[in-house]
Design goal:
Elements lengths: L1 H18 L8 E6 L17 E6 L3 E6 L7 E2 L2 E2 L13 E4 L5 E2 L12 E4 L5 E2 L12 E3 L5 E2 L15 E4 L3 E5 L4 E4 L6 E2 L14 E5 L6 E2 L13 E3 L6 E2 L4 E2 L6 E3 L6 E2 L4 E2 L6 E3 L6 E2 L4 E5 L1 H5 L6 E3 L4 E4 L4 H9 L2 E4 L89 H27 L1
Parallel strand pairs: 3-6, 6-8, 7-9, 8-10, 9-11, 13-15, 14-16, 15-17, 16-18, 18-21, 19-22, 20-23, 22-25, 23-26, 24-28, 28-29
Antiparallel strand pairs: 1-2, 2-3, 4-5, 12-13, 26-27
Length: 455
């Protein structure tokens, strides 16, 4: 009885297990070496022998190993890697740690690819690596990885504000509405057609300003469809203006090139009817053929043929004497405006030197001194007149005591009574003369009176 129960239990377990869905590991349907290519392919850079790939039946292609992948590019464009015959089955690409790049054209036109996961060791993604894979909507990539031109299609990648940015430094698309566009600081590379796809609002853009962090921009960045673009300002980090940067921007009137730029490539600014002047920095040392101021057909130029070119009317080059700007202007017959020509010096009138102010010398005033009193002749006793035939004289009387007669003493005039004591300068001489005359007159009168008394 117990045996029958045990048998029934085991049978029930088997039935339950049979009802469960079978779980099995994904099956590898293809594999190989990333450096291996078919004869129809042209190797991009002869790398990849240390890198392998496997594709499982769940659509996951995994790349493993160390070093660089090869690049895959044919005579007419990307041709995909050794998995080319399976690319419609690829939905996810995983590049494991140790691999340092994704080769150019490697996953071109994988139309069902939606997810790409790149290890932190992957520092660059080659030219057109995922071009034509327009359903890519999820991308994992290390910050700062270098992304080649047209490496990704921006159609379904998530936007950050008005921009689609890969690895935080690569601007690959624009989704804004136009107007004045300011590229975010921190962007180092602006890829081809970055302002065209996916929004297709480029005809509404009126100006673009690049930060100093931008080091490179893609070819033919602003074309004929930028019908409202009037001005573009580049930051100081840009060293090369690529060919075809401005081609057919009909209302463009201002282009500001930064000091630090060294190269302006051929046909960089062409077919821009409203642009009459470009200022070339002193740092520019190379200017390509027909780089500035021409109307031409770039289709011929890019196919290796010499484009028909004619100079734009009234176009001028502004720059510094002795630089590539002046050489280009002279060789191409453009007017050159020198920024460093010395302006005529204005002669400043000579300012007269005013004499130093000196304190006027105070004239020395002679000290006020009391003038010396005039000498007054001593008053002597007049002799008795002697009467003769011609004159009357006065004999001197004999002294009574036979003593020697004393000299007559002139009484001193008190100082206070001296009328000359107040006379100074030119007034002193006439005052003294008058006094002398007065004294003489007194003496004469006294003598006459004495004579009359004796008579």
């Amino acid at each position: 009885m117990k045996t029958k129960k045990l048998f029934a239990f085991l049978l029930a377990v088997l039935l339950v297990l049979a009802a469960l869905p079978s779980v099995s590991a994904a099956e590898v349907i293809a594999s190989g070496i990333c450096g291996q290519v078919n004869e129809a392919y042209i190797q991009w850079d002869n790398d990849g022998d240390n890198v392998t790939w496997t594709l499982t039946d769940d659509g996951v292609l995994t790349v493993s190993g160390t070093g660089k992948m090869n690049g895959y590019f044919g005579g007419y464009g990307p041709v995909a890697g050794p998995w080319r015959d399976y690319r419609d089955q690829i939905t996810t690409v995983v590049v494991n740690d140790g691999v340092t790049n994704v080769g150019a054209g490697a996953f071109d036109r994988c139309k069902n690819l939606t997810t790409v996961i790149l290890a932190d060791s992957v520092k660059s993604v080659g030219y057109m690596a995922f071009s034509g894979s327009n359903n890519l909507s999820s991308l994992t990539i290390v910050d700062g990885a270098v992304v080649g031109q047209d490496a990704f299609s921006p159609d379904h990648l998530p936007a950050q504000g008005d921009f689609i940015i890969v690895a935080k430094t690569n601007l690959i698309g624009y989704v804004g509405a136009g107007g004045d566009v300011v590229v975010p600081d921190g962007i180092t590379h602006v890829l081809d057609d970055a302002f065209v796809l996916p929004a297709l609002t480029f005809s509404e853009i009126t100006s673009v300003t690049f930060p100093d962090s931008v080091e490179s921009i893609g070819l033919q960045q602003f074309g004929e469809g930028f019908s409202s673009l009037k001005s573009v300002t580049f930051g100081n980090g840009l060293t090369t203006l690529p060919r075809g940067t401005f081609n057919g921007c009909s209302v463009l009137s201002s282009v500001v090139l930064p000091e630090g730029m060294t190269t302006i490539e051929e046909h960089a600014v062409v077919n821009c009817a409203s642009l009459t002047n470009v200022t070339v920095p002193r740092s520019v040392t190379t200017i390509g053929n027909h780089a500035l101021g021409y109307n031409c057909n770039l289709g011929y130029a890019y196919n290796g043929r010499d484009p028909y070119s004619e100079k734009m009317t009234n176009f001028k080059i502004t720059g510094y004497t002795g630089t590539a700007a002046e050489t280009y202007a002279k060789e191409n017959g453009f007017a050159f405006i020198a920024l460093d020509e010395p302006e005529p010096e204005e002669t400043q009138p000579t300012t007269p030197v005013e004499p130093e102010e000196t304190e006027p010398t105070t004239p020395t005033v002679p000290e006020d001194t009391q003038p010396s009193a005039p000498s007054v002749p001593e008053e002597t006793q007049p002799s008795a007149p002697t009467i003769g035939p011609d004159a009357l004289t006065y004999p001197t009387p004999a002294p009574a005591d036979n003593r020697t007669p004393q000299s007559a003493v002139t009484p001193e005039t008190p100082a206070a009574a001296n009328p000359l004591s107040v006379a100074t300068g030119s007034e002193a001489a006439p005052a003294a003369a008058l006094m002398l005359l007065g004294v003489l007159a007194v003496l004469a009168c006294g003598a006459i009176a004495a004579g009359r008394r004796k008579e």
